[in-house]
């Protein structure tokens, strides 16, 4: 009786472990390691995983290369999918943590102090803010036109640009969207 119970338990464990790997499989491959360097626009990219050659193809870690190209990489574990955007985005406004979203037109830019002044466009969802707004050092600025989106630098902003901005709880702009 004890033997049959042990065999039954071992069988159940083996069955459960087999179903855990049912969605994929392991394959042993031989790769060639050859101190491969990665360069993006003249800048050497450092990685925490060594690039290698397999079947006459060079394999490199995606995230550091995408970061070097100014892209954003995310992993969707539910879909088993790598998602690459040609631009870095910022999270939506988090109203519950004291952030606000404002619309307006840039009327003055101080590049040295990283501030802008806006003429705010008020709607039902807006809260009035001081016209002088400080920009975070790590601000993400998106330029959107038609179905294209790209990142731009603070130095690319111009007076007259219409913006939407996320202002954090410390009253710094952490994200800007310029639309045409």
Automatic annotation (TrEMBL):
<feature type="domain" description="Copper amine oxidase-like N-terminal">
    <location>
        <begin position="40"/>
        <end position="112"/>
    </location>
</feature>
<dbReference type="InterPro" id="IPR012854">
    <property type="entry name" value="Cu_amine_oxidase-like_N"/>
</dbReference>
<protein>
    <submittedName>
        <fullName>Copper amine oxidase N-terminal domain-containing protein</fullName>
    </submittedName>
</protein>
<dbReference type="InterPro" id="IPR036582">
    <property type="entry name" value="Mao_N_sf"/>
</dbReference>
<dbReference type="Pfam" id="PF07833">
    <property type="entry name" value="Cu_amine_oxidN1"/>
</dbReference>
